[in-house]
DNA sequence: CGCAATTGAGTTGTGCGCAATGTACTTTGG
DNA sequence: CCAAAGTACATTGCGCACAACTCAATTGCG
């Protein structure tokens, strides 16, 4: 057989579509606080752990400097974070939340709650999806001989 | 509570990461046939049903003309598809596979098989993930009052 | 010590994704 | 029959994602 399965049977397509639909759902609330989805998720990482370097942040978000540098520049421009060149190793830049950036967490949490309340999915379904998505990511990443 | 859950607990982040990791996995094989992942998935839709209009294709892929127009232009430039202005309604453009585009299906199928063989995930896990991803997409889409 | 290799961040170029807008064509209502 | 409304596609602008590259700082090895 040399045929390819139809669109709906493609796992890759389903993941792609789910991800974009989700980004779309966030687009309903995040603009209120002036954020895009990737900016939001970057702040989530910082709310969890502040003061990390760009590359450390990139490792957690699975993003490289080519994506993060301009994104962080925009967040700094909004006054939500600060970029500090480190004294010990001047190649490194550490990222620090400003008071404004820290203050955004509660508003973002409220927006996120609203978004998920609107989605008709059970807790157990969400949990299963979360753990399977992690499984898939881990499995797919281990095959790709990541060079970074 | 005004805090936001950690990165690993974010369903949204897990979906985002899974989708990008998967795109990355395809990046290992698709360049052989000169395609990006969205171009590949567009061809999958055409292999499934040829001769549709741009908007019909967009509905199936959940993409709008702003994304599809340049993408289709690139595919046409590679000689894989043809764009025909319809006689009956000249606003419409129908998309048709060329023999070269049709011939690509078997090669693409082989590449896809290789990619999935490298991913250590069971059939039942893949099926569960597929169906949950569909569930999520449907649930999240129904809340967003989509105007298109 | 001195210089080559490595590392951390940034820049550039290409393509995707989407909102907003533009343009040509078709349908509808008077 | 013609003007207004609606439709199908294209274009523009912005941000994300990633590869490839540059540059400066640091590390390591002779």
UniProtKB/TrEMBL annotation, chains A, B:
Classification via SMART domains: HTH_MARR
Gene Ontology molecular functions: DNA binding; DNA-binding transcription factor activity
Places the protein is found: Cytoplasm
GO biological process: response to stress
Coiled-coil ranges per UniProt: none
Cellular component aspect of the GO annotation: cytoplasm
Ranges of residues in domain HTH marR-type: 8-138
InterPro entries: HTH_MarR-typ (IPR000835), MarR/SlyA-like (IPR039422), Transc_reg_Sar_Rot_HTH (IPR055166), WH-like_DNA-bd_sf (IPR036388), WH_DNA-bd_sf (IPR036390)
Stored Pfam families: Staph_reg_Sar_Rot (PF22381)
Keywords: Cytoplasm, DNA-binding, Transcription, Transcription regulation
Protein name as annotated: MarR family transcriptional regulator
């Amino acid at each position: 057989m040399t045929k390819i399965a139809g669109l709906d049977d493609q796992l890759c397509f389903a993941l792609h579509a789910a991800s974009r639909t989700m980004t779309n759902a966030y687009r309903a609330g995040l603009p209120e606080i002036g954020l895009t989805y990737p900016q939001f998720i970057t702040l989530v990482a910082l709310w969890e752990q502040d003061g990390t370097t760009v590359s450390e942040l990139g490792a957690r978000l699975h993003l490289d400097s080519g994506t993060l540098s301009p994104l962080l520049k925009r967040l700094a421009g909004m006054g939500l974070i600060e970029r500090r060149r480190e004294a010990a190793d001047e190649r490194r830049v550490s990222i620090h939340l400003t008071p404004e950036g820290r203050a955004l967490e509660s508003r973002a949490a409220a927006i996120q709650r609203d978004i998920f309340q609107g989605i008709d999915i059970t807790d157990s379904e969400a949990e299963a999806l979360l753990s399977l998505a992690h499984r898939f990511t881990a499995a797919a990443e281990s095959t790709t001989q990541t060079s970074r």
